[in-house]
Amino acid sequence: MTLHALPNELLLNIAEFLDSQSSINAFARINHHCNNLLNSFLYNYNVQHHYGDALHWAAARGQLETARESLRQGANIEAIDPTTNRRPLFEASYQGHANIVALLVANSANVNATNGRGGMEQAITIAVSRNRECVLRVLLESGIDPNLATSKSGEHLLHIAAYRRVQSRLAVTKVLVEAGADLEALSPSSQTALQIACLHDPEVVRYLIESGANTDVRRPGGITVLHLAAIQGKINIVEVLWDLGFDINTKENCGHSVLYSACSNGRLEVAKFLLDRGAKINSRTLSGFTPLSAAVSWESNVFGGTGGEHGGITAFLLERGADPNKASHTSTTPLHLAVRSEHGLCKLLLQHGVDPESRTKTGITPLHEAARSGSLESARTLLAANVNVQSKDKDKNTPLHFAARRYHPELVELLLQAGADPMAKNRHGKLAADVAMEGIIGRSNEKRARLRTVLDHLEASSSLQHK
Length: 467
Prior knowledge:
Blueprint: H1 8-17, H2 21-28, H3 32-49, H4 53-61, H5 64-72, H6 88-95, H7 98-106, H8 123-129, H9 133-141, H10 157-162, H11 170-178, H12 193-197, H13 202-210, H14 225-231, H15 235-243, H16 258-264, H17 268-276, H18 291-302, H19 313-319, H20 334-338, H21 343-351, H22 366-373, H23 376-384, H24 399-405, H25 409-417, H26 432-437, H27 445-466
Helix pairs in contact: 1-3, 2-3, 4-5, 4-6, 6-7, 6-8, 7-9, 8-9, 11-13, 13-15, 14-16, 16-17, 16-18, 18-19, 21-23, 22-23, 22-24, 24-25, 25-27
């Protein structure tokens, strides 16, 4: 008698004696009749001996019939896969299988459950973060609140949608807004979805604004969404905001224009865009600083004035007509800021007509600043421009006093060679050597060694003057 001629009861008895799922599966594949007869038995075996992992397999691969039969045979709809640590609903949502999600929801899967042991993410949050539009619709139709604050971060679903990782989340953003998501809800960091999107996704920015999001929302300090995009160099978002009518000359509470904020962070492409559309190149902050000052400070700090991919922002502003002699309310000019680094920016500003002898309200010249900062090349550049090496601040300190106080032996030597007087006294009657000695107690051995060299230079120069 051939196998297919055996009674069904006997075939089932044979299957029951098989000791593995793979053996039962192989037996079921012998012929069409065995497959039909043993299919339910196989799923039941999977439920009894393999915690119903066929349901997880189906959820991961979008196999609707497999999922349906697993549930029919009693698979635990909330079982956690030990490998992925995911429930079937979370797995299906993660993979974007809306048909499986709908089946699981219809069979009373817990839509609010988190992913596995100790997990904090829910199926709906993963649907949003992975831009699973159809999955999101199914979950919202199950009754989940579109203004749900997630258990993982406390952010609303719309906040998650406003972020952009690999791809835009515009599709899920639209679904949430259409479902009634609150455009003005604040995240745990007190940001609206629009503020978040302005750092991530131009498409979402446009959609949120066109859907009625408050465009005048500001961060502490009065920082607008346009400032946010400019600071981060998001030129595509800056373009969208300008296209939607944002004022490119708007200022935050400290008087920083959007252009100033862009220059403060070296955002050359944004600066070009703003100036091409009418941004005021010499606008001042409440402290009187200009975008040029911001650009110089940024380049000095980041590149040391040596240039680089972003190093042309100062040169660009000067070429576009920025005034290098616009000083702050303390009379600090861009040159005072430039000499804190090496000579590249200093030379550039001098080429564009900056006053090398400009003074702050306390009488500090750029040479004083270079001496204080230890910027040897900047000092050389200024001396080559014939600045007064004996200039004095309001306390009658010369650049030599500044260099000596900061233990810069190379600068002390340079200033002495340029004619600095080591016997010049400040308002308190102190020589450069005297101010160098102040506060030396407790200094490191390295600073003590530098001090010794400074004093040697000063002593040698003083001796020459007395001959």
